[in-house]
Amino acid sequence: MHHNLRELAKLATGLVLADALSALWLSSAHLLPIDFFGASITQTLVVPAVVFDSVLALLLAHYGWGIKLPVRTMRERTMLMVVGVLFAAVALVHWVRIAFGMDLVLGSWLVPVWLSWIGVVATTYLSYLSFHFALKQRNT
């Protein structure tokens, strides 16, 4: 099971690095500020976001590639439950965007709704995996 968690951490490392690179790209392409679901992302938020993403990517990479011994604590199970709830919330936001036909504009680009379908599938699956691993840990 810990092999699966390490593989999930490797995947999450890639997603976090992609988030950091997209923040840098938005900044360098002068597409900031943008509004994303009511939150305004400005140029001043880029540096803290990239620093946070870098630290998170290092932690995930350390877990994904570095830890050899299994860690069986209540904290890991709690963390998996929290991550599952967060992924479920993101999936719900994608569902709301699809259901109400909400527009999402990044800079001058209108994000197509079909990208939210991919977001629904990905975040729902990651939420399921998080809950699955959390409940499986309880039974072992």
SSE inventory with pairings:
Layout (H helix, E strand, L loop, with lengths): L1 H27 L5 E3 L2 E3 L4 H20 L8 H27 L4 E2 L2 E2 L3 H26 L1
Antiparallel strand pairs: 1-2, 3-4
Helix pairs in contact: 1-2, 3-4
| String of helices and strands | HEEHHEEH
Number of strands: 4
- Gross morphology is globular
Count structural domains.
Answer: 2
Low-confidence stretches: none
Task: Note the total helix count.
Answer: 4
Please state how the strands of the largest beta sheet are arranged side by side: 1-2
Rg, Å, rounded: 17 Å
Structural class: mainly alpha
What is the strand content? 5-15%
Mean pLDDT: 82
Helix content: over 70%
Describe this protein's structure:
The chain is mainly alpha-helical. The protein has two domains: 1-71; 72-140, no CATH class. It is 71% helix and 7% strand. Strands 1-2 form a two-stranded antiparallel ribbon. Strands 3-4 form a two-stranded antiparallel sheet. Helix 3 packs antiparallel against helix 4 (114-139). The chain is globular, with a radius of gyration of 17 Å.
Descriptive key words:
140 residues, mainly alpha, 2 domains, two-stranded antiparallel ribbon, 4 helices, 4 strands
Describe, in short, the structure shown.
With 140 residues, the protein is mainly alpha-helical. The protein has four helices and four strands, in the order H-E-E-H-H-E-E-H. A hairpin with a 2-residue loop joins strand 3 and strand 4.
